[in-house]
Design goal:
By secondary structure, the chain is α+β, with helices and mostly antiparallel strands. The protein has helices at 23-26, 35-49, 82-89, 148-157, 172-178; strands at residues 3-7, 15-21, 52-57, 77-81, 98-104, 131-136, 140-145. It is built from five helices and seven strands.
Length: 186
């Protein structure tokens, strides 16, 4: 698990916070990015984020059901409220890539200005979203928030330890680049 606080002028002026979770920390599974794990994560923060609707983009998994989002679509698409989203997620076995954004209903409609995809640099501007969840490579779940409270809630709920910034394999090269250090090349 990783908790990072960053202010990045490249992606946003706001300070963002991040936590990295794996399946074993959420439900004991040796696999990560499973639909029920994402639903569990969303249910853990639902009381704290208030009334939100959820958007998804860059999905790597398709399921039959009431929500149809084209695989790889990078413009966020509406899923629905928290109950609709968690019910839908529980139908998905695992995502390789995916992005989920919780947007407060009072800030709707949302005008997305950029594509939102899983394999971009961390700490991008998530606009009015209160939480961004990314599935990365089927093995890591990252949660980003503009405020530390939601991330701290996840840390406490899933009883994970805080590590030092830049120790995540995914964020390490970005962390080094942001701090003017050479990134790993292997």
């Amino acid at each position: 698990m990783l908790l990072v606080r960053r202010t990045s002028l490249r992606w946003a002026v706001k300070t963002h916070y991040m936590v990295e979770l794996k399946g074993v920390e959420i439900n004991g599974s040796t696999f990560s990015c499973e639909g029920d794990q994402l639903a569990c994560l969303i249910e853990a923060v639902a009381p704290a984020i208030g009334e939100c609707v959820w958007f998804a983009s860059d999905l790597s998994d398709q399921i039959d059901g009431s929500i149809s989002i084209p695989e790889g679509e990078r413009m966020p698409q509406l899923i629905g409220d928290t109950v609709t989203t968690t019910t839908w997620l529980k139908q998905v076995s695992q995502f390789v890539w995916a992005v989920f954004l919780a947007v407060p209903v009072e800030t709707l409609p949302v005008a997305w200005i950029d594509d939102v995809w899983a394999e971009t640099a961390p700490f991008r501007d998530i606009g009015s979203a209160r939480l961004e969840i990314r599935c990365f490579d089927g093995s890591h779940i990252y949660a980003f928030a503009p405020e530390p409270g939601l991330i701290q809630l996840l840390v406490e709920h899933f009883r994970v330890e805080v590590q030092t910034p830049g120790t995540s394999s995914w964020s390490q090269s970005y962390w080094r680049a942001e701090n003017g250090e050479a990134a790993d090349t292997d």
